[in-house]
Structure formats: structure tokens, C-alpha cells
Design goal:
Shape: globular
Protein name: S4 RNA-binding domain-containing protein
Strand content: 25-35%
Organism: Citrus sinensis
Length: 273
Amino acid sequence: MPSGIRQLIQAVKGNFDDLLKGVGDKNAIEEVKHILEMARRASSRREVLHSDFLTPPVLKESMMALEKLADVKAVAQGGYPQAERCRLSVGHPEALTSDPDIVAALSITGNFGFQPCSHGDFLGSILGTGIAREKIGDIILQGEKGAQFLVVPELADYLITSLEKVGNVSVSCTRIPLLALEYEPPRTKSFKTIEASLRVDALASAGFKLSRSKLVNLISNGDVRVNWTTVTKNGTTLRTGDIVSVSGKGRIKIGEINSTRKGKFAVELIQYL
């Protein structure tokens, strides 16, 4: 290997180590590292490479790290504007000149009028065909009509022939254009709370209108997640933009945070309805 190329690789590796130190969500480090390595390969070869569907925290941390790299362009696509799970395309700016066609939409229809199915029911049936979770994007529930979901295009035909039931309901699965996805922007309402700390047990108990002791029990049971990662410590500190979800209770987003004159925190909580 020419010494110049070897030095470049060593320099890039050191740069990656520095970038990974800046990753706020430590659970995302390995996946972010994989994305950075993929970006390095794509840029050096003047080609475009694609990830599987990423969770929101991994996507966020990856985009922040990629912004600091020269000669790398990144495009995130989840199939529709509010998509939570997205695929990432990375490459040299001269190679990545348009949005790649890397997301397919499928529709699941059946008689769900008498047997409503949950997000978990649809996901379980899709994964039951043998497909890995990272190959599947968001699932959009449609009540009695069924659901729509996003998938990597190369598995669309397989799912169309393999997915026969969701719960006890016989279904048919067809491919639809991305423009046919029926999604609604999330409805929210905001309110303010004054708290002595930014701990998850304090803000979540205020956001979900639960007692602190009840919230602590939910954390102990693994029912509380921050940015889609299960929380194990009551004292986990939250910051603006964090998403907190509690099983069976919904989710909230942490909005603007300001300090009060008395040393407390005025926190905007955004509740998803």
C-alpha cells in the first residue's frame, strides 16, 4: 500500500475516534461507527452506499457526525416527511446528486373491523416472515383498513407473497407508490412545568401526570424509554429534543428549557395526542 494512502487511512481513523467521542447516545456508538466507515468507503470509491433503516437516535447521531466530514454527503429517507425510521445514503458529493430510490411502500389490507390489530401485531407478522427488523421502516396504522409500511425494495416482492395473516385476519399485501401513503402530521399540545431538576423521573411524571413513585416503578419495569432506548436510571438527565415514551401512556417531547430566578427549570413539555 502506498505510504500516502496508508497515512490518509490512519488520519481518517483518528478522525473517526474523535467523532465517536462526540456521540451523545452511547447506545448508538457501534451503529454510528458502522455508518462512518461506510461513508469513508463510499467517498473514497466515488460511489453511493445505503444503510438499513435506522432508529431516530442513531440517525440523529450519524447525521451530526457526518456533517463534520469533508467530501461526504448524506441523504436520509423514510418514505414520507414525518418518518421516524429512515435509511441513510452516503457518498461523495459528486456521486450523490439525487435522492436514491431505496424505500418501497406496501399496503396490508384485510377485514380488521371486528378484529383490530395493533402496531405490534403488524410488526410481529411482518417479522414472522423471517425479515430482520432493520429492513422495515415505519408502520402506519389505518384502522379497519389495515396498515401501510415501508421496506427495503429488494424484499417487497417476498413480502407480497409471504405475508398472509396478521393476528387471525387473512390479509393481502400489495405495493403502492410512496405518494399513496396516508399519514397525518402528529397532533400535539404543549404545557409548561417548573421542576427542581431535569431528571427523567421528574419531567416524565409531570408530562404523563403520574406520581413520582409510579414513574420510578415504571422505570424499574423497563417501561420507560428515552429516544427509543430503555431507561434504567431514575436520574437520567433530559435535554431539549428528547422523546420520552411510557408503555401504554404515549410519549412526550422535551421542548424549550429555561432557568428560573430561584434556580429551578421552566420546561416546555410537548404531548403527542
